[in-house]
Amino acid sequence: MINRIIDFSINNKLIIGLYIDAKIMHGSKKARVLPTSAVIIDQGISYFFRKTETNGNEINFEKVPFEPGMKSIDYVQVKNYDKIQDTTSIVLKGAYTLKAVLNKSEGGHGH
What sign has the CA pseudo-torsion 62, 97, 93, 47? Predict the structure, then answer.
């Protein structure tokens, strides 16, 4: 048995005794996910921003709370939120910047 482990380690360029962090996938399932750059956490609640309407040069956004599911480094699953359509315009980058701009325009402090 140990010889197989050594052979596997050599063939896969692994060093015995080093720590390895691995993720093992079992099966597959479709889920709605957002990139982590689209998610903000404010007072323990997860949010994303979606575009609601455009008036001339002005674009309006809505802060939408959701229940996060499984998480990876790059993505967060959106649980229990059926209102998201595949055509919904969602802010994918800069969510914290948008939050700061919206708080400033509302006169808020973001606390």
Answer: negative
**How do residues 53-95 score in pLDDT, each as one tens digit?**
777 778 888 888 999 998 888 999 988 766 666 667 888 888 8
Question: For residue 73, what are its two tokens?
Answer: 């480094």
Distance CA 109, CA 102 (A): 10
Look up residue 36 and give its amino acid: T
Does residue 76 contact residue 69 with C-beta atoms inside 8 Å?
yes
Question: Could you tell me the residue ranges of all domains in the chain?
Answer: 24-105
Query: What's the confidence (pLDDT) of residue 111?
Result: 46
State the Cα–Cα distance between residues 49 and 39, nearest whole angstrom.
Answer: 8
Q: Which pLDDT score is estimated for 86?
A: 66
Q: Do the Cβ atoms of 111 and 65 come closer than 8 Å?
A: no
Q: Which sign, positive or negative, has the C-alpha torsion 62, 63, 67, 69?
A: positive
**Encoding tokens for residue 96?**
């914290």
Contact 58, 66 (CB under 8 A): no
Give me the percent of the chain exceeding a pLDDT of 70: 80
